[in-house]
Amino acid sequence: MSLPLQSAAREAMERLNAEAAGLNIWLRTQANAPAQRPWFRDDGIAAGGTLARGRVGANQMKAAPHRWRWREIGPYLDRIAEIARGAKESDGVSPIEFADRQQFLLVNPGLGGRLQVASTIRCAVSIYLPGDVAPVHLHTPNASRTILSDNGGYTTIEGERCRAARGDLILTPHGTWHDHGNDGTTPVVWADILDFPLLEFLDISWIDEDFPGERDGNARAQRPTRDSGYSERLYGAGGILPGFVSHRRGIGRDTSPVFHYRGEAIRAALDGLSGEAGDPYEGITVSFVNPATGAPVFPTLDYAAQLLRPGEATRWKRETSSTFYIVLDGEGTTEIAGAAYDWAQNDLFVVPNSLWRRHINRGPREAVLYSVSDRPLLQKIGQYRAQGRDGDGAVVQLVE
Ligand SMILES: [Fe+2]
């Protein structure tokens, strides 16, 4: 009977490990061996059936698949805003000063309370009341906002005033001066997505709030020097580049000079392609790229949008990258590692790295998902791989 012996040995190792803790060393045991998920092995990989096998020690954290339902989390924005309003009226404290931002951050339940949805990605959902201004600043994380409210609000980036509407994607690449605000009459809501966890991990996250240029009336925002539509005017004609600019904006490098994609234009592009065959693993997709280089808009994150036609079910796919999704339109299900996550408008969900997943549009009309993936980062370090399952369920290498 080898099992009891093994167990006894294991227990002895754990006791020894506990004893050694004070010396800041960790004795390697079976239970806490570094977690590894099988990759290039066809057997034992259920198509979305179970998490890939691997030993995850109690001291290790892995991002979990998760969906945040808008109908459950959305009301908290109103409650935050209500308290902020009260602070303004009773204490004379402006909402931004009161809590820096009126927002909640999404917490992946697998990551022990860290303010991140995946190992590299943070998402916050913010509300800006009429009159709110987030002062001008610059930082090393790349950031974006996906506009969820219908209309109103702006972000000014390097002097370009981007007026927001639902479905817009507004980028604030690292090293660009930016400020946000709501100069309208109704609250504005958007999702902020950043590569903050990665920069925090590398300890290279910093912020500069000492804007050197001319400020707008309230002295906290930069004075707009370019109107809404500047990005579109310079780069909106596909395949045609202006020859009189450097394509570098801000002090960062390897980021896109386009700051603003309009929701209407994104949807029109998807609709215009919806009659094509598309990708069996993704449906109809478009990627947001640096028009000068064709590279992803950020060196770390790739932004994309996809359309799933009514009844469309994609094939199983998995990647070494993690992907975070925002449901812009429609209703459906994404199956991740054997569990089904239904989604509807404004829901958010994450597919952590290496887990099998597929999307199904269960609604009567087109579904549109926006996504953010850390694929560019993994490609740069030679770690991006992707597998799919063909119609018979056999594993195929999509990117080796
Ligand atoms: Fe920022």
Précis, in short:
The chain has 400 residues and is of the alpha+beta class. It has 8 helices and 23 strands.
Characterization of this structure:
The structure is a single chain. This protein is an alpha+beta fold and 400 residues long. Helix content is 19%, strand content 28%. The strands form 5 sheets. A 6-stranded antiparallel sheet has the order 1-19-16-21-14-13. A 6-stranded antiparallel sheet has the order 2-3-10-5-8-12. A 5-stranded antiparallel sheet has the order 7-6-9-4-11, with no helix packed on it. Strand 17 and strand 18 form a beta hairpin. The longest helix is centred in the first third of the chain and has 19 residues. It is globular, with a radius of gyration of 23 Å. Bound molecules: fe (ii) ion (FE2).
Distinctive features:
8 helices; alpha+beta; six-stranded antiparallel β-sheet; globular; 23 strands; binds fe (ii) ion; 400 residues
List the helices and strands and how they pair.
Layout: H1 2-20, E1 66-68, H2 70-73, H3 75-91, H4 95-99, E2 103-105, E3 122-128, E4 133-139, E5 143-147, E6 151-157, E7 160-165, E8 169-172, E9 178-181, E10 188-194, H5 196-202, E11 207-208, H6 230-235, E12 260-261, H7 263-273, E13 284-288, E14 302-308, E15 317-319, E16 323-329, E17 332-336, E18 339-343, E19 348-351, E20 357-361, E21 367-373, H8 375-380, E22 386-389, E23 395-399
Antiparallel strand pairs: 1-19, 2-3, 3-10, 4-9, 4-11, 5-8, 5-10, 6-7, 6-9, 8-12, 13-14, 14-21, 15-22, 16-19, 16-21, 17-18, 17-20, 22-23
Bound molecules: fe (ii) ion (FE2).
